[in-house]
Prior knowledge:
There is one protein chain. This protein has helices spanning 21-33, 48-64, 75-81, 95-102, 116-124, 149-158, 174-180, 189-192, 197-207, and strands at 9-13, 38-41, 68-72, 85-88, 107-113, 129-132, 163-166, 184-187. It has one domain (4-207): TIM Barrel (Alpha-Beta Barrel). The radius of gyration is 16 Å and the shape is globular. It starts with 8 loop residues before the first strand and ends in a 6-residue tail after the last helix. By secondary structure, it is an alpha/beta fold.
Amino acid sequence: MKQANNIQGLYVITDNRPQSTAPLLGQVEQAISGGARVIQYRDKGLDHEQRQQQAQALRELCHQHGATLIINDDPQLALQVGADGVHLGQDDVSITSARKLLGKQAIIGISCYNQLDNAIQAEQAGADYVAFGSFYPSPTKPEAKIATLPLLQQARQQLSIPIVAIGGITADNGARLISAGATALAIISGIFAQTDITTAARTYTRLFDDPEP
């Protein structure tokens, strides 16, 4: 059974800087301990063999703890390691192509930036969730397009699939996004740049218990 309804709560994205597997697994395990239930593996600096090794290790870790593993940009890698799904950007393969490769049970998410029409089209094309952002200035992508709370509210009214908010999200501003309609908050530096990853993750996770800002 497809687990697209698992796309909720704290959604962490691994730091894009290349690193060895053991530290990566340690960081992700700490995030899971803090409540993260979706892990997106994002790396553009390692060669394919290294990325495959890390993704395979992450798959085993995630499934051991009941977390969902999503691979960024690379449906073929997702297939090779048996990940739960793939996240696509505007320059990646189409949803249709990814679905043909990965099968109907795979979770397919797509970045829609600040474009509601793109999200509506993505849902019609078979996407299992969409992501909007950046909602706030982001140290990871300082030049990212800015999305707004009204966009999120409109998306919640018009879409039936989960909505992920990303970009500059902190423990102070995240509750507004949840109240506006975000199903999940995608965090990178707010988790993995912190000294205590588990505590940072718990801070975000608690926002979903009482999302009122």
